[in-house]
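We now fix the convention by which a protein and its fold are recorded. Here is one such record, which you should read through line by line:

>
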Amino acid sequence: DLYFQSVGRGASLLLNLPPDRRGQIHAADAAALRGFRKRRERIFARNLAAGAQCSPRAALLLDGRRDTFWQPEGGDGPSELVLEFPAPVTFNVAGLREHLPLGQRVERFALDVDRHGYWQEWAGATAIGNRRLLCGKTVTTARLRLRILEAAASPALSDLSIHYDTGLEGE
């Protein structure tokens, strides 16, 4: 939770792990950090959105590069982007990044899933910035929609990812 509340909102995660009298990290802390690393690697190992169908311009969100970005054709107003998957995907974590050389622009957004032909909001937040991670209920869908609801200028997003964390099941 602390990781998602800090790094997932664009901040740093300060671990505050002091060395013991030998100048080393305590074995219990080191083991906890290794477990933390393994869980992060497991969650983010595969971007389930990578195989989605979308417009060629929107594909820049899925190319895994931070130096490319998608901007909606409509400019500054509300806009949306739909990803269609070849087969339904199950996820409970989503990640977004803005292309920060152009500044932080998104003020409010939402992610929706297709539920039997109707859009249902899965999650929403007020800023993206360097990185925004969202955790929600586990859902399976064949389509995902990103809605930019408010932006200070034309949004410039460099990454959209979805992941499945087995540790969130039942939450």
